[in-house]
Amino acid sequence: MLAVVFGADGERVEERPEPVPAADEVLLRVEYCGICGSDLHAGEPDFRVGVVMGHEFSGTVVGTGRDVEGFSAGDRVVVNPNGDVCGRCAACVRGEVNLCANLWDTVVGLARDGGLAPYAAVRAQTLHRLPEQVDLAAGALVEPLAVALRTVRNSGIPVGEQAVVFGGGPIGLLVTSVLRAAGASRITVIEPNPTRREKALAQGATDVVDPYSTPVGEAFADPAVAPRFAFECSGVPQLVGEAVKALAPRGVLTVTGYSRRPPEFDAADLLFKEITIRGSFIYVSEFRDAIELLARGRVDVSALISGVVPVADADEAFSAMRSSPEAVKHLISDHHSTV
C-alpha cells in the first residue's frame, strides 16, 4: 500500500506493507485522515524518521489482535493519537495525561505509524467509538476539535464575555466555534486572508479584522471593546505581543499556536495590566467531549474540509495547505470519492 512517511527531508509517499495487528492492536481501514499544521512543519525529534504520518483520523475496524476485547469488525471509531499514556509517571498519577512523561514515545503518527495510509494498526486503548450521527469525514476533525475545546476551557472564559482569536486556520476556526457554543458574546477573529475571514463568520465570529488594513491596536483602541480573553492560535510569535497589548487590564491570553521561536511582547503591557498568559496542550477528557459536541450538533466542522484526495496525491494536498490560505483542512482517503 502507499503511505505518507516522514523522512529526514520531510514527508514522502512510498510503498509500505499492509500492517498486521499485534496482540493488543486493532487493524483499521482508515476512512479519512486530516493533514495537521504540525505535519506541514514536521521535524525531528518529535517525528521519527520512517514513521507513517497522520494523527487525525477516523476508521472502521477490520480485525483485532488476540488480546483485544470490546471491538469487532465494522465498528466505526476515531483514534486518539495521544491516548497511549504510561499511567505511571507523576503527571499521569495526577490525571494530567496530556503531560505524560512518555508521551513522545507513543504518539500515533509521530512516534508510531499513523493514518496517512489505507490501513493502520493501533493499540486498542487509543480508540473511541464514533456515534452514527457523526459522519466519518467529521470524525477526522475530532482531534483538532479536542485541542480547541481544551484551549477554551483552559482560558476560564465565562458565558457572555468578549474574546479575540488570532488566526483563522483550523484551530482558530474551531476555537471560534467552541466559543460560540460556550456563549461568548462577541468573538473577533484577526485574520489577513478574506476567505478565512468568511469562514470565521460562518463558524460563529461576530467580527473579523484584517490586520493589514486595520492594525490590532486600532481595532481595540476603545477600552469598551477591549476583550478580557484572547486566544493565540496561529503560532506566529509576534502575535503574542499583539494579544497582550489588545487585552483589557487583567485579561487572559491562552496560547495554543506553537512556534519554535520565542514569543515577543512588551513587558510593560504584561506587568502594568496584570495580564495572565496560559498555555494549552492537546487534551485530556476533551477528546471524548469533542465527539459529543459533534454528535449533538453543537459544532459543525464540514465547512473546514477543503478537499479529499487519495494517498497517491497527498503531496498535492500538502503543497496546497502550505501555499494557499484558502486551503483549511485537506483529508486523505483511499476509500472515498475525492471532492
UniProtKB/TrEMBL annotation:
<keyword id="KW-0560">Oxidoreductase</keyword>
<dbReference type="Pfam" id="PF08240">
    <property type="entry name" value="ADH_N"/>
</dbReference>
<dbReference type="InterPro" id="IPR011032">
    <property type="entry name" value="GroES-like_sf"/>
</dbReference>
<keyword id="KW-0862">Zinc</keyword>
<dbReference type="InterPro" id="IPR002328">
    <property type="entry name" value="ADH_Zn_CS"/>
</dbReference>
<keyword id="KW-0479">Metal-binding</keyword>
<dbReference type="InterPro" id="IPR036291">
    <property type="entry name" value="NAD(P)-bd_dom_sf"/>
</dbReference>
<comment type="similarity">
    <text>Belongs to the zinc-containing alcohol dehydrogenase family.</text>
</comment>
<dbReference type="Pfam" id="PF00107">
    <property type="entry name" value="ADH_zinc_N"/>
</dbReference>
<dbReference type="InterPro" id="IPR013154">
    <property type="entry name" value="ADH-like_N"/>
</dbReference>
<dbReference type="InterPro" id="IPR013149">
    <property type="entry name" value="ADH-like_C"/>
</dbReference>
<protein>
    <submittedName>
        <fullName>Zinc-dependent alcohol dehydrogenase family protein</fullName>
    </submittedName>
</protein>
<feature type="domain" description="Alcohol dehydrogenase-like N-terminal">
    <location>
        <begin position="23"/>
        <end position="132"/>
    </location>
</feature>
<feature type="domain" description="Alcohol dehydrogenase-like C-terminal">
    <location>
        <begin position="170"/>
        <end position="295"/>
    </location>
</feature>
